[in-house]
Amino acid sequence: MNVAQAAPASVASGLDPRRWKALILLCTANFMVILDAQIVIMGLPSISADLKLSPVAAQWALSANLLTFGGLLLLGGRAADLLGRRKVFIAGTALFLLVSLLSGFAWNAEVLLVARALHGVSAALMAPTALSILTNTFPEGRERNKAFAAWSGIASIGATVGLLLGGTLIDWLGWQSIFFVNVPVALLMLILSPVLLRESKDAGKQRTFDLAGAVVSTAALGLLVYILVEAPAKGWVSFHTLGLGVVFLVLVALTLVIEKRSAAPLVPLRLFRSPALVGGNVVTAIVAALAFGMSVAISQFSLGVLHYTALEFGLSQSAMPIAAVAGAYLAQAVLNRIGIRVVAVTGVVLLGAGCFLLTGISPTGTYWADVFPGLVLFGLGLGGGPVALAAAALNGIAKRDAGIASGFNTAAFQVGGAIGVAIVSTIIASHMAQAATNPAAVIEGFSQGFVACVIFAAVGLVLAVALLRKRGGGQLQVVPEQRTPSAH
């Protein structure tokens, strides 16, 4: 059957014949968001030297992006539902392009920090909206599972390519090039988006924002990210951390009160009646903590103890994204046959097993014996687990809620990642402080960092079994449909 014959069949079935090309575009957006985050980490030493950033300012070049990205995810997801998913995606991509130019041309620290904060805004518009469009474009079942596999696999590739590309670009062209490389890709995305993406939005509700809910929930989420970013330096039981923790809990309680009373809530509380959505997002946060925590430990060990160059480190890690792609596509192939819970549990077990093998890492060990097996197991779990968890969190969600549900899923990953970085960084730093009197404490710190990741996996395993429960037919419970007379 040729393309001309296949297209009418797709149209007749209600499926967009451009959906697979659209998937490439959406995965490219996910790839660029993750690539940018990784590549800036690699470029930070050069940026700090050139712009004379203090250590605090250098940290905020990363934290400013995390705060705006994490804080605005729910608002970005709901904006897509109400204003139009394609429209919001294009707006986010246009801002991403402009911010990349501003970052590359930054002439002082202040401009760079503003640009990085604005980058978080663009990512908060792009990432959940792209996932929402994906969810609405592909029907539940095999096709959507394949799309989730591509989304998950490209994320792992983006992280490693960022490490490889970052070091090479900085050495050859300077730190400005790590921002300018985004420009042609973003421009191509802007050109193709109106061609490949259908517009969709929630036409069944008033196109009004829950302003109070938006302000309070955004403040709560942003404050949580800030607490996690600052906790390793301020101390987990310091007055600063605990005081802000109390403020966060107050904001969460206030959000619940506002959303319960709102006629058009930013965060519809009915979504939380789905064990699949809750379980998928909670375990997603655990998996993110594992992924980011492991990344902190392996990168600091390789660059600081083994003294790898950026290129050597990127090459040494390449086994993980290759395994992640294999794990993602294996997961989507068996997801409908063996079920979401089995695939999710298997993914978490593989992640934990990979980290367990890495607990024995040492400066005198060999890559193939001590590192490679752990990376492969970890990669398989990192590819397969998120496919099942995305299916749990997004399957069964009404189209009108796809944006906010995608925002939840992306926010869960970001918050979980911040938790993993904060905890593992604290463990490593506490052992580093003992290095003057006990040199062996440095290696012990990295080992304990991987142990923390194993503990994350154990917690994730329990939660996956407990929350991703089934009903009579063997399918995960989903959000009950609540139709209104004006809903389509």
CATH class of the largest domain: Mainly Alpha
Distance between the termini: 34 Å
- Runs in which pLDDT lies below 50 for 5 or more consecutive residues are 1-12, 471-475, 477-488
* Shape by Cα distribution: globular
Largest sheet: none
If you consult CATH, what is the topology of the largest domain? Growth Hormone, Chain: A
- Domain module count: 2
SSE string, helix = H, strand = E?
Answer: HHHHHHHHHHHHHHHHH
Indicate the multimeric state.
single chain
Task: Say which CATH homologous superfamily of the largest domain is assigned.
Answer: MFS general substrate transporter like domains
Structure notes:
- The chain has 488 residues and is mainly α.
- The protein has 17 helices and no strands.
- The relative contact order is 0.13.
Structure characteristics:
globular, Growth Hormone, Chain: A, disordered C terminus, mainly alpha, 79% helix, 488 residues, transmembrane transporter activity, Sugar_transporter_CS, MFS
Which SSEs are present, and which pair or pack?
Blueprint: H1 3-12, H2 19-51, H3 55-83, H4 85-104, H5 109-137, H6 142-173, H7 177-180, H8 182-196, H9 211-234, H10 239-261, H11 275-305, H12 310-317, H13 319-338, H14 340-358, H15 367-394, H16 402-432, H17 440-467
